[in-house]
TrEMBL record:
Organism placement in taxonomy: Bacteria, Bacillati, Bacillota, Clostridia, Peptostreptococcales
GO molecular function ontology, one term from the record: ATP binding
Protein name: ABC transporter ATP-binding protein
Alphabetized UniProt keyword annotations: ATP-binding, Nucleotide-binding, Transport
Residue span, ABC transporter domain: 5-238
InterPro entries assigned: AAA+_ATPase, ABC_transporter-like_ATP-bd, ABC_transporter-like_CS, ABC_transporter_ATP-bind, P-loop_NTPase
Organism: Anaerovorax odorimutans
Amino acid sequence: MSKILEISGLTKNYHDAPDSEDILKNLNLTVNEGDFLCILGPSGCGKTTLIRCIAGFEEYEGMIKVDGKKVEKPGIDRIMVFQDFNQLFPWKTVRKNIQYPLKINGITDKAELDRIAREHLELVGLSEYGDFYPHQLSGGMKQRVAIAKGLALNPKIILMDEPFASLDAMTRNKLQEELWRIKEKENATVIFITHNIQEALVLGTRILLLSKQGKIKIDMENNVAKPVTPASEGYGEMWKKFNDALWEEDEEN
Ligand SMILES: Nc1ncnc2c1ncn2[C@@H]1O[C@H](COP(=O)(O)OP(=O)(O)OP(=O)(O)O)[C@@H](O)[C@H]1O
């Protein structure tokens, strides 16, 4: 398995106050191609800051390499999907939303643009919705379009910051299933932040628990066989391990 992401000595401070503490301090992490890495951790431990650094949205100290290349700015090799439903241009149709970043990145042939949009709409189960505008879609459908739009760029890493946190439980379960199916089909590498231990167990092939300043408290392979349900062998043990660790974090802060 090849290393797709290598982080060494990552330190981040927003320097918003003269004596402000580092948000991330000397973090080291390697992610292999095809990993689905879920990140848990108490509020404020630096999860979003970490993936913003990987996305190239932040300056940082240390080294972040994606496929051997230093991250210095955003790039189409790393796409980010957020929790917010408003990640799409409201004045563009679903199809045009998917095609816009492709055009910016040099694909101008109309037939090619249509093919890519068609394939990715099909991938997220929205073949019939290419001509719809974002305001005509539900929250779950908008998140599917955001995923399709990112995948269309054929990224090396998909960064997801609680993408399903604002969805109702049923839609969330459905999107988790879909995301897993897509990850398997595309052999995608995903880094996924969540506050939900169940979600981490359902999706993750590996689960990290971060504590203050991005310290890695747990880094575990998730060996519970997919599809994961609370009745799966090993589920209860894993859930308890992460739950206890999160409570411990809460008490320490
Ligand atoms: N732009 C910024 N300027 C200054 N401080 C910031 C900025 N962004 C985040 N922080 C601070 O960095 C710390 C970590 O924030 P971050 O959003 O990375 O945490 P998180 O683990 O993702 O939290 P949550 O689970 O609540 O989303 C917090 O103390 C936050 O206030």
